[in-house]
Specification:
With about 850 residues, this protein is α+β, with helices and mostly antiparallel strands. The chain has 19 helices and 41 strands.
Length: about 850
Amino acid sequence: MTEVPRGIAQKSLLVFICVVLTGTTVGQQEQLPASTNVRIQTQSNQKAAEQLYLRLRSVGLDAGRVYQLRQASLDRNQLHISLDDGTIAFTQDADGRVTGAFFEGEGEILVVPPNQAERASMMLFTGAPILEERFETAYLRFNDDTFGALQPALRPLPEGKDFASKWNETAHNLAEWDALRLFVTFSRFLPSALAETPSPGASSLNVTDDFLHARVQGITLGAFDAYYDSTANEQIAIAQQKRAQAINYYNVWASFSPPRAEIRRLAEEEQPDEIAIRSYRIRAQVNPPTTLHADASLQVEVFRGGARSLLFELSRFLKVSEVKVNGQPVELIQNQALEGSQLARRGNDILAVVFPRPVRAGQKMELTFSYAGDVLSEAGGGLLYVGARGIWYPNRGLAAADFDLQFQYPAGWTLLATGKRVREERPAEVFGSTREQDQASRWVTERPIPLAGFNLGRYTKAVAQAGNTTIETYAAAGVERSFPTVENQAVVVPTLPSVRPRPPQTVVLTQPPPSPARNAQAVANSAARAAEFFSQRFGPFPYSSLQLTQMPGPISQGWPGLVFLSSFAFLTPEERSHLHLSTAHEILNRQITAHETAHQWWGDLVFWRGYRDQWLFEGLANYCSLMLLESENPADFRLAMDKYREDLRRKNKAGAVLKDAGPVTLGVRLSSSEFPDGYEAISYGRGTWLFHMLRHILNDSWAADKQKRQAPNQDLEPFVHAVRKVRERYAGKPITTWQLLQVLAEDLPPSDRYEGRKSLDWFYEGWVNGTALPRFELQGVKMIPRGNSMAVTGTILQKDAPKELITSVPIYAAMPGERRVFLGRIFADGPETSFRLNALPGLKRLLVDPEQTILTSSR
C-alpha cells in the first residue's frame, strides 16, 4: 500500500489546516491546553507581523461590547446561521478590527449540501442528509465587518461584564486556532517597508477574501465546526473532531462549493496558486540516526499579487531559524499542526513567511530557508527513513519543479535521492566540513517533478536492466525491530528401528530472521519486469533510472525515480508463508513492487490537482500492476479483484457497510472515525474496479471484432491507447478526474456511447461519484429467428442501486460447446431497461457480464 499523502493538497485543504479547532466544546469553561511549539522569528526591528499574529491568537472578549441580540442571521451562500435570541459578546480589537464573538442563547444552523455525494456524507455522520441543528452556544471568527452588519439586531446590555467574564477564558483559548488564517488576511495591511503608515484599512479588504468560522455546541450533535472561506476551492465545510481507536479524526461531514461556483469550477481550469516554485536547491547535512540540517533555496514566481504572507508546509520536527527573500531576512511564523487534522496525523506543520511589502504579479524572487531538527526515524537493522515524520523541505503542495540536492553524510552509509547522481563531491568543498571521513553526493532532476525525497541506510545493492533503464535495489541485511517475529516450530522426529526402542523426540526448529539483502536481486528483477511491461504500453520509463530502497513498516512510498519499498516486499515466498496471510493478501503483497513502479508514470510523471483526484493515481497504478498480474496469472488477478469487492462489503461495528464511507472523490475524507481504513478500501479497491470497468467499456467491442477477424495480437488495445494519450498530454502536469475521462471518451466505440455522445459523464456521475454495488438480472427474454440470425429482446433489471444509476452492461450469448460470444453492451438506465440485440443461430441463453467486468455486489 502506498502512503496516502504525497504532500499537501491545494487550497481546498489548507482551510482545515488553518482553522481546525480542538476537541473542547464551546460550552466548556475549563482551561484548554496551551499551544506548544508556536515560534515567531524576526530578523528586523520591525515586529508588526509578530504583534498582529500574537494579538489574533490571544484576543479575548470585550466587556464593553456585550449585547442582547434577537432575530439576526449570518448567511454565506448555503451556510445559514440564525441567532434567534440570546446574548453576544464581541472580541477585543486586533489591529483596530473586531474579529470574533461569543453567543449564548437560541440559534440554528442550516446547510443543504448541493449533491448526492455530499448529502450521503452528511447522512453518514449526522443521520440526516441536511444539517438543521439547534445550538446553545457559538464561537464566531470572521475577517469582515460582521460586527457592523449585526448592529441593527443589537441592544446594549448594562450587565454585560458578567457575561464577558463567564466566557472570556473559552474565547481566549479558542482564538489561537483561527489566528493564522486571519493573519493571512490582515497581514496585507501591515506597514510596508517603504512606508511607516499601514496600507489601506479594513474598508479596502479584498472582497474575494471572506472568512467565517462558527464553532457551535449543537443540542443533538455536540460541538462541530462550520466554515465559509471564499479563498478555498471548496468554500463551505462542516466538520467535527471525534476520537476512535485511540486516534483523533477530523470527520468532514460535507465540503463543497456553492452551485454557481461548482459549475464554474468544473467548466474552467482551476485557478493557479498565488506563486509557482520553479526550482529548489537544497544542501543538507544528515547525521544518523535522526538529525537533519538544511538550507533550501526556492526560485519563486508570483502569479497573483497583493499578499504580504505566504504559507508553506514543513515537518513539525524541523525548526526554521531564518528565512531570507533575495538575501534579506524577513519575519516568519511557524505554527504547530492542529490536533486531529489530516496534517497533524501526518506530522507536518504550516509556517508563514511575511514579506516586507505586498508581492507583485510577475515578480521573481529567491526564498532561502535555514532549518534543522530530528526528521529522520531510526528503526533498527541499519534502516532509517524520512517520511513518517513529514515533509523535509518547505513546499506548497504538488507542483512540478526542478531539484538540485546536495547531501553530506557519514561514511559507511548509502544515501539515495530523487534525481540523477551527477558527481562525487568532497564535504569540505560543498559544506566547508572538517569531518574528512564524511561523504557527499549531489542529485539533479532530469525534468520538473512534483516532489523529492531521500533515504539513508546500510544497504546491499542489486542491479537489473529494463531496456535503457537501470533498476537498482538497496536492501539491508536485517529488518526493523517491529517486524513480525516468526514463531518457532515444534517438529516430532520419528525414531528409527533399533534394539532399544525410544519414544519420539520433539525438536524445536528456530526460523532465521528475514534478510532483505538476500532477496534484493529478485526485487530488482521484479521491478525491471514491471518497468518493461508498462513502458511497452504507456511509453518510455520517465527517468533514466529507478532506485528501490528498503523502508521499515508495511507502507511503501514513492518519489520520481526513487521508491521506499516496505520490508515486506523483500520477503522470499517461504518467508511470506510464515506470516500466514490469506491467499488474496499474499497475491497483493507480491504486487507491491509493480504497484510502486507504476506510480512512476501515475502519481510522479502525471499527478493529481486536488484531493478529489488523488484516487486516480492509486487506482490506475494499482490496476496497471494487476494488468501485469493478469498477463501472467489470470486466476490470481481474479482473486485480487474479488478481495477488493469483498472489502467494500465489510461492515463496521455499527453495521454500516464500508462502501458507504463515500465515493472515491472524497479522497482522504474517506478515512474517518466511522471507517478508519476507508481511504485504502475505496481509493484502491473501488478505484481499481473503476479502471477495470473503463478498460472493458473501451475494449470489448474491439476485442470481439478482432476475434472475428482473427487479427494478430499486435495493436494496442483502446484502453491502453487512451491511457497512453493521458501520459503524452499531461506529463509533468496535474490532471483532474474530468480531464482523464475526457481523454478516455475519445476512444469510445460508437456502440458504447450513451445517447450517442462521446462522453463518460454518466460514468462519472453514477460510478466515480457514487457508491453503488448493483446486481443485474434478465427478464422476459425472447429469441426470434430471422433467417441466418436471431433477434433477442428482453428487459435488464438493475437492483440495489440508485434510480438514476446508468451502467454499461456487457451481454454474451451462451453457444454450444461452452462457447461465449459477445453480443454487445446495454445501457441499464435505472431499475428497468428494455433491449434488443442480434445474435447467431444456436443461441442457448443470454449471459450478463460473465467475465465479471462490472463492480457488482456478488460474483
